[in-house]
Specification:
By secondary structure, this protein is an alpha/beta fold. Helices cover 45% and strands 13% of the residues. It has helices spanning 16-34, 57-68, 89-99, 110-120, 134-148, 165-176, 193-206, 216-220, 240-248, 255-260, 280-289, 298-301, 308-327, and strands at 46-51, 72-76, 102-106, 124-128, 155-159, 180-184, 209-213, 225-228, 266-269. The strands form two sheets. The chain has a five-stranded parallel β-sheet. A four-stranded parallel β-sheet has the order 2-1-3-4, with helices on both faces. β3 (102-106), α4 and β4 form a beta-alpha-beta unit. The longest helix is centred in the last third of the chain and has 20 residues, at 308-327. The chain starts with 15 loop residues before the first helix and ends with a helix.
Amino acid sequence: MNLKGRQFLTLKDFTPEEITYLLDLAADLKDKKKKGIAVDNYHDKSVALIFEKDSTRTRCAFEVAAHDMGMGATYLGPTGSQIGKKESIADTARVLGRMYDGIEYRGFEQSIVEDLAKYAGVPVWNGLTNEYHPTQMLADMLTIRENFGHLEGLKLVYMGDARYNMGNSLMIACAKLGMHFVACTSKKYFPNAELVAQCEQYAKASGGTITLTDDVEAGTKDANILYTDVWVSMGEPDAVWEERIADLTPYKVTKEVMNHADDSAIFLHCLPAFHDLKTKIGKEMGERFDLTEMEVTDEVFESAQSKVFDEAENRMHTIKAVMVATLGERK
């Protein structure tokens, strides 16, 4: 399968076969890394990594993947470029496209990464926008496949605010790959109706299903994967915390909730997670709202069912696969 030159902006742009190819490629690259087999024949390539939002996993995954492949990588942090300030997106794209072989973008509106892709003339990879998080999806799907041996027919339940990049992207990935996606949350946090309808069409073709419910017990019954994320996204005001905590506490992933799922169920989280008070923000919010955890209990996060650190590692392997596929495989 040839994906050379393709943009990687959202999984809506990829067929189930293409997504599966990327997962297979990632698994192969992961196996090679574990065995010490180098895939470093990209010494003539360099990539630009634009981060308008700070990151741990996405930045490290791209930088280590590029290093493993023999590439040069330039990190442009929130204050490290003139993108959108003194220089337009189109102009930035045309400058970077003359210097680099690929561009990663992590930031705000999806329109920004789409404009970069339109003008750059090289592959652009979406490291996260407000609407989509496709590199996270590949890591999630690889982790799930490693645990169950397959994806088709599995039930994934997303609990929390399902209106933004994680809820959107999980719904798309599950629908494309024949999985049963459930958004289990308050009705005010259901995903966009237009995207739901689009995903229902994907699911119809793949054998998957889309379910929206505010009933925790029914929504999580016999689930194979329970997934959650922080309740307040980067860039949102502190005032949002009180509302989200009040609305979403019934959808916290607890041991009781995990017990509704299948005995072999796993827990996933894209991280960082407020499962204790050992972070500055976690401590502040804990004191302010008299909480010891938020979207997931420490008991679940630290349990054998939790695969969050396998999932975090898989960011690197799947991002490497995206770069290899879009820059062109080399033997």
